[in-house]
Queue: 4 jobs
Job 1
Amino acid sequence: QVQLVESGGGLVQPGGSLRLSCAPPVSFNSINVLGWYRQPPGKQRELVATITRDGVTNYLDSVKGRFTISREFAKNTVYLQMNSLKSEDTAVYYCYARVSDNDYWGQGTQVTVSS
């Protein structure tokens, strides 16, 4: 079992920035894919960004150029840097990890973009 815990959510004004963090309890070498998903109010969960073990990234079209997913090996932590936030980015954000053939999710952290 891999327990994921997100941190860094909160309330931010449009145009602002936030950085989400997630530190999986297993080595990055054991994880095939790390990523972030989100679920806006009243909508389905959607992929925001992923990074493979080899460092290949993938982004939701609407966040390209504004969000960046990265890893810090020394801290075994994955980040989602979110810049130029918009009201439509408001959602619960979930950390995700694929280990072997199993998918793991965090409990989620709320991001609210509002003036």
Note: The mean pLDDT is 95.
Job 2
Amino acid sequence: VQIAESGGGLVQPGGSLILACTASGFTSDYWAIGWFRRAPGKEREGVSCVNSGDGYVGYADFVEGRFTLTRDNAKPTVYLQMNNLKPEDTAVYFCAASPLLYRCSGYGWDPRRSPAEYNYWGQGTQVTVSS
């Protein structure tokens, strides 16, 4: 599975960005794709995920309704719309995928545990929120 990320950049506090992730090479129609981030001096953490089945979408608590994740199953591509960005959102954002659909589910998604459970990773894209 190959991951291609796009988006990211520099934005002022309160601004918006869209990150896109396309995953290719799945051998089945079942998958989970998530966005993760690593801020300077911090552990990698989950941001949001979606699966190809029931369309469950999980978010980390710190999202607080500011981010929205959508999917296009045909490619598949997922889009992370980030609004009202804060300086503490500054991080390298990574897209990752798993062939196990339940990795993004009500019982499978854990923003702290999930980074270790996704198999395929992109190279990451920098998001900087600063005035």
Note: The mean pLDDT is 94.
Job 3
Amino acid sequence: VQLVESGGGLVQPGGSLRLSCAASGFIFNSYTMSWYRQAPGKERELVATISSAGGSTNYADSLKGRFTISRDNAKNTVYLQMNSLTTEDTAVYYCHGVRGTLKVWGQGTLVTVSS
């Protein structure tokens, strides 16, 4: 059971990044998937969630309009498109899957927004 994030890195303010999270070892299309983030010195917070079939999404209020979560169940991958990034978006971004009491976390990918 594994989630592996990729796509993080250094980006300038105003830029964009797309994070990917590849799943293996479980029935991906039965899991609700989410992205969380944890900024330095802060608690982990929920960024966005997508239902198992991809038909429903939810976002943190402060991120609506800039971030988009999507998934490709054929590729066992969930994505997070991030636009108009600011320094406040600097954090480690984590992928998370849940089905009932079953939960799985990725190891995280660092996004640094800096000029």
Note: The first strand starts at residue 2 and ends at 6.
Job 4
Amino acid sequence: QVQFVESGGGLVQAGGTLQLSCAASGFTLENYAVGWFRQAAGKEREGVAWISSHDGTTFYEDAVKGRFTISKDNAKNTAYLRMTQLRPEDTAVYYCARVIVTRNDFGEVVGYRGSDYWGQGTQVTVSS
């Protein structure tokens, strides 16, 4: 049974740092691209970052590029999201999920989405 358990969220002041963890079970994390998504109150869930299955290629949305770092520890079957220079607009529930990446005929990434299973999320609140 595929499961994700997110943790590490909390209340932090603007400019602060948090590290989120995503403990995966029921499958081998190394074999899948995994990503972080977030959903702010009253808004749709959006992608934040993802990391590829084997070569560690990463992708970040412009809103978090340079501030957030996604990583994973295959031995622990756990993915991480280190968030620095946090802003009030980063306030949201953060989720992790397996990712399906769409590429064009040239192999360039043109989109991605969370696939099947989702965890319960972890709340991140950034005060100004």
Note: The mean pLDDT is 95.
